[in-house]
User: What shape does this take?
Amino acid sequence: MNDKAINVLEQYDMTINRTFKGRGTIICDTEKGMRVLKEYKGKTEKLELLLQLQKRLGDSLRTDTLIRNKEGALYVRDIDNSVYILEEQVEGKECSYKSEEDIVKACSAMAKLHLKFMTPVSYTAAQEAEQYDMPVFFYADEMEKHTTECKRVRNYLRKLRTKTDFERALLREYDYFLEKAVDVTKRAKEESKAEYEAYVHSNGLYCHGDYQYHNVLFGKGSSGAYTGIINLEHFAHDTGARDFYLLFRKISEKCDWSVRMAECMLDAYQNRRAFPPIEWRSLCLRLEYPEKFWKIINFYYNSRKSWMPNRNFEKLEGLIKQEKNKERLLERLF
Assistant: This one.
């Protein structure tokens, strides 16, 4: 360990037997069990609320729970003033996107998580505000921002006198995807933001915020099999549709928008928690929006323009090839 890590870990009440590197973390073997140290980029005001949400999960659904330091705080700072958090480690086999059984279990666990995260009726809005006044995430606002960027990048590309092969390929597809982005954004903005925010607040809804297969683990303990859902520090004040959309899109892209896999994911989730109409509409709009195209141009625009990795060409080609299958799936199921 370097001096910075030693300084951070010394602020916790534990004896460390050994440490080793994880995925952007330091894993600590201590006398109290395995612990994970990670840098935290979010607002520290959210952490008390995060801990309360983590404590709602039981034996069958586990997460990497926050640990307080010697002073009772949920975070520490290093000599450079960077923020770190320490959590109990959840062990298990990572969910495989190649396994239909794993994906179905991950969708079912997601629904269970959302039910656990719903604030009880007895829990008042005033009590929530005392912890942290967390804004509601409204999907149409993000779409509008992305669409504005798409328009800006198109204008930039059109003005280029000399274009690379990638830029010419991008322009050939631009009008189709931009028109779709504009249309979906317009329909999303017609949804009532006030109604959406009121729905999220009144039901006390929270979601994981980054529900991807590598954040889902499967393990066995003394009380039986369990599902671990980790990295909850990205949690958001939003509906379950946000989490479902992310995992659904990621898996659908990897299996060429298979209708059968899509049906399996929808059934696994809705067998536990059916999407209310307001969430279903938001899910449909999220899926229609060409987010993958926006991601490609966002990476292009914020990178060195003189050289584009082959991977970006492959992503663009893959997007074009899959578009008909995606449209067919959306028309059939949504």
